[in-house]
Amino acid sequence: MQMVYLPDLLFLIETEQNDDYVRDVGVQLGYDHMQIVSPQGLSGGLVVLWKNFFSVSCISFDSRLVDLQVDYKAFQFYLSCVYGHPIPSQRNHLWEKLQRIATTRHGPWMMCGDFNEILSNAEKRGGRIRAESSFRNFRLMLQVCDMQDLNYKDNMFSWVGNTRDGIVECCLDRVMANSEWRQAFPASETEFLEIAESDHRPLIIYIEYEERRKRGQFRYDKRLAQEEDFVDTVKNFWHHKCSHVQDLRVQLRLCRTEMAKWKRRNRLNPAEDIQIIRAELDRAIRDPRVAAWQIRKLRTDLNKAYYNE
User: Fold this and answer.
1) What molecular function does GO assign, one term (predicted)?
2) Distance between CA atoms of residues 251 and 140, nearest Å
3) What percent of the chain has pLDDT over 90?
4) Residues 67, 93: contact at Cβ < 8 Å?
5) pTM over cut 0.85
6) Sheet architecture: strand order including 9-13
7) How many domains does the structure of the chain reveal?
8) Lowest-confidence range among 58-72, 191-205, 277-291?
9) How would you label 279-308 residue by residue, b for 16+ Cβ within 10 Å and e otherwise?
10) How many Cα atoms occupy the beta-carbon half-sphere of 160 within 13 Å?
11) Are 118 and 170 in the same domain?
12) Among 45, 238, 248, 293, which is 20 to 30 Å from 173 by CA?
């Protein structure tokens, strides 16, 4: 994910690794700074990583919360990276802590992470119906903290588990912000990616002042030179179509367009392969009829596609 989306700030949950290992991986991924929360025994562990052009200060941290102050594009806001307790009876300690923070916190504020909780039975597919009273404490925390979900795209049912009651899907992971934050960045949104290596969907947060029109960017893939048909196509186009054009810049632009057409016709884009395999893996994980060996094979295919990319 890091190589495809290049996030400026990255929050990882359940690292389950010692601090030195986490620090080495963070440096390899190109992050200059990080706040590490060590795992407790063989479970847990959090890390927030960010790049040098961010100004981030850590206000507090523990095994469930990393609370930060961030300077981003001349805009300062609070960021709470959350990991809700997997045991329901223990979650309210974190909700109460966030409510205490809210009593003295003024300014734009965002929360993100795995809350391990949902707002209603509508955020759950499969399994037993929960009592309405079980959602009360989580709802109260969001009300006191003035939190609402950012706009999002794709599947918000971010966790899939194979339980005694069958396949269950829940909206456990989310990105929320208070009214001041949403007013400052009204075009921001969350993208839910496909489930792949984990039983949780990775989340990408796009922070935007206003809607921007995305433009495609041409990139030359050096492996295309190994395709004989590609080489012949480019040579023929250059000699017969571009030779009559005097401006070299125009020649190059026309040639780039022809290369892009060839790639679309022959579908050699490893990024597309990654998306297709991730989608297949996402469906397989949620289908109880799919065997474990089939899921392992899809994960192997996905690793190969990442290697090619």
Assistant:
1) catalytic activity
2) 63
3) 45
4) no
5) no
6) 9-13, 46-50, 33-37
7) 3
8) 277-291
9) ebbbebbbeeeeeeeeeeebbebbeebbee
10) 19
11) yes
12) 293
Enclosing domain of residue 62 = 2-206
> Could you give the 3-state DSSP secondary structure of residue 167?
strand
Model confidence over 80-91: pLDDT tens digits?
A: 999 999 999 999
Contact in structure between 98 and 110 (CB atoms under 8 Å): no
Mean pLDDT value across residues 31-53:
90
Beta-bridge partners for 9: 50
CB 79: neighbour CB atoms within 10 A?
24
Nearest to 296 by CA among 162, 159, 196, 200: 196
Give the integer Cα–Cα distance in Å for 280 and 136: 36
Q: Which residue's entry shows tokens 């057409």? A: 261
- Residue 49, pLDDT score: 95
Crossing angle (nearest 10°) for helices 228-240 and 248-266: 150
Alpha helices in 55-145 (DSSP H): 92-104, 136-145
Please tell me whether residues 102 and 178 are part of one structural domain. Answer: yes
- What's the CA gap between 6 and 106, in Å, rounded? 30
Residues 89 and 40 in one domain: yes
Six token digits for residue 232 = 């012949």
Q: DSSP assignment of 170-193, as one string?
A: E--EEEEE-HHHHHHSTT-EEEE-
The structure tokens 């597309």 sit at 272
Residues 28 and 176 in one domain: yes
